[in-house]
Amino acid sequence: MEANEPGAYGRIAGLLRAAAFRTRTRRIRVALGLGLLGSGGAALVCALLARPARPWALALPPLVLAVAARLWPLPGQRAAVAALALSDLSLRSALRSAVELHPFVVGGDGLSVRLVEAHAAATAGRLGEVDLSRALPAPFSRIVLVAGLVLVAADFLLARFGLAPIAAGFAGTPSASRAGLAREPITGDIELTYLYPAHTHLPPRTVTGTDGAITAPAGTQVRVRTRADRPVVAAAAVINGVAAPLSVSSGRDLSGTLICRKAGSYVFRFLDARGRTLAEGPPMPIVLQADLSPTVVIDAPRQKSEVDPKAVVSIRWHASDDYGLSEVALIFRTPGSPAERRVLLEKAPQTPTRLSGEASFDLAPLHLSPGDTVSYTVEALDNDDVSGPKSGRAAAHTLDVFSAVEHHREAIAAVRVLWEKVVLLLADRIDEKIRTAPSPAGADSRALTLCDQLERMGRKLRREPSGPAGLAAALLAVATGERARASETLDAREALRRPWNSPEGGARLAVALAAEITGLERDVPYLERLLDEQTLRDLFSLQKELSSRRAELAKLIETYREKPTPELRAAILAQLARFRERLTELQAREAELAKGITDEHFNRRALAQVAKEHDVGKGLQDIEQRLARGDVEGAMKALDEMGSSLDRMQDDFQQLAGEAGQRYPGLARKLQAFQRDVDAAADEERRLSQETDGVREQAREAAARRASASRALVRELARQAAEAEEELSKVPDETLPRGLFGEDALGNAREAAGTLRKALEASDLDEARTAVGKALPRVEELQGGLSREEAVAREWSGPGGALSPPGKLTEARRHARGALRPLQDIRDALDRLFRAQEAALSPAARQRLGQLAGRQERLREHLGQVRRDMKAVEDTAPLFGPSAQEQIEGAGAQMGEAASSLRGRRPGSAVEHEESALQNLETLRQAAKAGKGQGGGIPLPMISGDDEGGGDTGEPAPGEKVVIPRADQYQVPPEFRRDILDAMRQAPPRQYEEEVKKYYREIVR
Amino acid sequence: MRLWRMPAAALVVALVAGAKASPGADALRTGFGETLEELEAWDVSAARKTAEALLLRYGHGSVTDELLGRVRFFEGDYAGAADILGGGPSDFARLAKNGVAEMRNTREVESAHFRLRVPDGEDQILVPYALDTLERAWQAIGDDLKEHPPEKIRVEILRDAGALSRMSPLTDGQIHESGTIALCKFAKLMVVSPDALVTGYPWQDTLAHELTHYLIVRRNGNTVPVWLHEGIAKFEESRWRGSPGQSLAPTAAACLAQRVRQRRLVTFARISPSMALLSGEDATVAFAEVFDAIRYLFDERGGVSALDGVLDRLRAGETDERAIAEVAGESFPRFQAAWKEYLRRQPLPAGIPPVCRGNLEFKDRPKDEKPEGSQEFGIPIDDPVVRNAAHLGALLQARGRVAAAAYEYARAESAIGARSPLLSNDYALALLHASRDADAESLLQASLRPFPEVAQTHLHLGEVYLAEQRWARARDELLRANAIDPFDPRVHAGLAQADLQLSDPAGRARELAALAQLTGERR
Prior knowledge:
The structure holds 2 protein chains of 2 kinds. Chain A is α+β, with helices and mostly antiparallel strands.
């Protein structure tokens, strides 16, 4: 009976077939379930027993059983009927009958087919009542299957999240499962012998009684020796999961070698003959010691240094490593080149742990230009041959090729900052003057601080080899002038604050303020013009630099044209890259510089126009493109055109700079007038001096004739001078220490006496006369000083009084008096001699002297014009420092003295004064010449060493002239000192007695 | 004979000599002459008729084409003229070609009596003011001269001096040298845009000035000598805004007074054939002279009717000397002597420095021209103390120290007074920033007395009045500024504000449009 039979039999067959399938399904479930139960149970048991369980072995049983159940033939129809658990027994019987009778339907066999079919039909009709799920229940198979699945799932969960040993057991690491659970050591004390890698130069080291922990550098071989806690057949050390056999001796002594390649741990494992693990010890750590990279330090030069382009830079370095160094190299990079270059400095086959040295870095072959920067460092490699040499580098250093323009620019920028402060100072003073704002607190001290800053900047600029000397001089001049004025303002303001200030105090402050304002009004524009001029000069200096770089490039390309090599090409490209970098930088600098120019006459449009017309960047691009194409000729031509462009640009800038520099036409004219007048005065004074000297010569000859007749007199005078000198030598040095103003009265007196003696010995009566004129007042002063000191000694005896006892002072004074008398005699004798000499002057000579006197006086008056010229200049720019004023005054004074000597028929004296006056004028003339602006630019201040004001930067200026003051330069008039010492004799108020004593002690010390 | 006629004459000879010798050549020559005369009299419509008749009669030929080309040129049809004249030898061929190029990117606007052509862009803001000025001038000056031409007068605003040189017989050098910024020629007015000059110039008066020339030519043909032309034009150029004779700069008047005393006047003979051929100082003096001569005639010899009488007589064929003598009732030498005596008797304007050089600085000045001292109105400040003070004022002002800046400016100003409008303006600004408005106002007023042609002064004064809400006065000043330098956006911003307050919506709209144009499209 087939299911595809039509009719009832088909339906019956269908049911039975479904029943057969269902039965098979039950079988498969049961087989699978039993298999899973078996495998899951087995795995669990293995895990519990810490036995490794093969996963494939566990999977096999359920699979086999399931397949077998699947392949088992389906039950027949009779078996299917028999299996049906129908509640209606009649139906079951009917089904059985239908099955059994089916063959008779086919075969006939005398039965009523119709009846059988009717029976089959009736039976088929009742099939609708049959529920196979009830007729063939499968709870058992389901239960079995589910149980198997549950067990497997439980195993899985246990393996993942379960107790460690069980999880470990599932992981197949029975020895690891013991670690967390009180796994006891299975060996005794462990002896470790470290055999370090060769490069570490470390000797072998044996450590006994360890817990087995290994700490060593990578590559270290570690010999392990230990004793098992039981007799073993075989053992192994499992390092990071990899087993290494250990040799067993005497059943329990274990030894072997481990190699530390990476950090982790290792365990001892005992094995049976078959290699199965019998026991396993706890894991012991392996810690790798890092092999550090070398450390390198550059001791010199500093991290950032400025050098000449052809300098040889000495680089001092030292390197160290934990184990050893193999080589040291200099690494550097040149501008325009992205690649680093390496130069071996030292190879160290002995691989020491420390190395140091000094390398000479020759910059010349690099063909550097001003403004270029070379970065460099020193690199050291260690000797690690396990994981490969490691490198260490010092901090990057740079060498900046000195660029005068850069320095200049920075200096100008710094000066501009100060200039801005000067402008604001002016504003503050004006605001105070017009009373729109009270004087800000501390304004005066800020003004003085600003003066210090200006002065420091001026000195700093002066010291720089290529610093703007004119600007430096201007800053110093401004600082000097403003300091004096600001000090006066400060004094006036402080005087006003005093309760007893005078009614004129307010007026004094107003005058001081007005003077400051006037000075600043002149200084601000002057400094500004100088800054503009410097800025403009920088502009075309930058252009010049560009031109010279272009020339270098041309040379390279020319060489390349003759002999094209890859190296030259690379050099050209590198040079082009540098040129481009520099060009970009220069163009940016041009824009920046041009912005700083405040000269309203500088035509910024013209500047922009010039820059536009000479677009050098385009030319550079053209050259690069042509070279890339291999068109060397074309590149040369383009380079020539660029060169012409640069030359034209330079001319334009130079012209613009010249125009902008001519901003003081009026000042230049006034300065010219001043110079002219000074020249004229100096020339006339020279002529006067020469002519006077001529007359003096005549007089001297006459005197010489007389002197030869009175040789004896001269000898006597010389003897007297020696006597005076002798007396002075007997004055103890300590009796009269340096005076109030530092002068050495005794030394001066001795010097003058010595000069007198020498002059007389040489029969130079003129000189002798001058010398006695100087010696006498000094000796008088000495005597006076000693007298006063003696008085002090008598008044203030005791500690803190005069330095010498009165007696000693009396003795000293006696000697001084002893020197005085012969000097007076010498003077009188010489006077008589000269009077006679003057009387012996011929009428013509006397007349001549009179004429010369007249000329000298007129010249002195002419100095008034020079003073007016100076004032006219000074109103516009601070070109004359105090020394210039002094020179004029000095010249005037000397001229006066000269005129007086000429009238007094003393040509010798007149010549001296004339020469002094001439010296003053010459100094002024030279200063005026030096102050002329460079190349017709703005005139510059005439600063000498005297005018540099106070303030000490702490650094001497190399080559700076030191002006040695004259011996009598700082002498205070004797009257002034006498006044002080007279005041000492007066009794002070009682309550101030001690203070006054202390005061005088200080000032006479 | 005018210079430009000489090549024309040569051309005629060449053209006609080249024509076949026939009785027709004489007629052609005559017709050519007639057309030229009509063109010279700027009777373009008559010239067109004559030229067309010749064309009809003789057909196209070198002569007829030349005439037609010129007629088209005079009509403003540069393309047509260039077409006909081609690359011929005539100057007009060159001018026509240049005209085509220059008139590219321009727009034409018409009013009742004018066809105004203005370049695109910022210059378009000139249109309403220009037309207003022209119409007013047409009416007022036309009334004075009794001439109201029927045709619409062509006016061309040119971008710069270069354009004027290309559109006229003048060279670039002559224009810069003489400071010529406008011409009335070829039956049109050509005026350089005030944007071509650094500080602008009184362009509205200039429009009226050139229109006066046009009206004189239309009235009198070519019978008026150049000195009289310029004198009347200068005299009348303020007529559009009030009475005549108001537009001579006080500094130029002072210069004239100085020259009178020095007996260094420019002769009228030198003034012919053109003022544009005189150098800077002489040009200033010449304008002042002729202006003053006409003013003398006007004031002392009968007003407008005197001018009328002179022009009538000139038209009738009399010489200028005779015409003046008849009107003045004395011989010309006596008239001249009386005028000079009158001049000499005029007191030197107090506190007005004589400035005998022109103040016009073109933006496109030749490269080799150097700025003369400080490029500003007034006298160059040579005194270094004054220059320093002014410069210090600028430095302090730039750093926000306005009180101190005002102090320095005051120091400079006390030395030179109101002789430097630049200084006065800087000082006034500092005062304004220091909230000293009244002082600023007095200063600016004092500066205007000698230098009324400085736009900045009017602008700052306008701003003072705006701040004080004196709207009408503000507008007056700003309009004066606009009449010199209309390209300063502040002028129009101020005017818009004033117009709003004065309830002038049309004015405000115009100013806002100008402002938008200027702030949106800066050259």
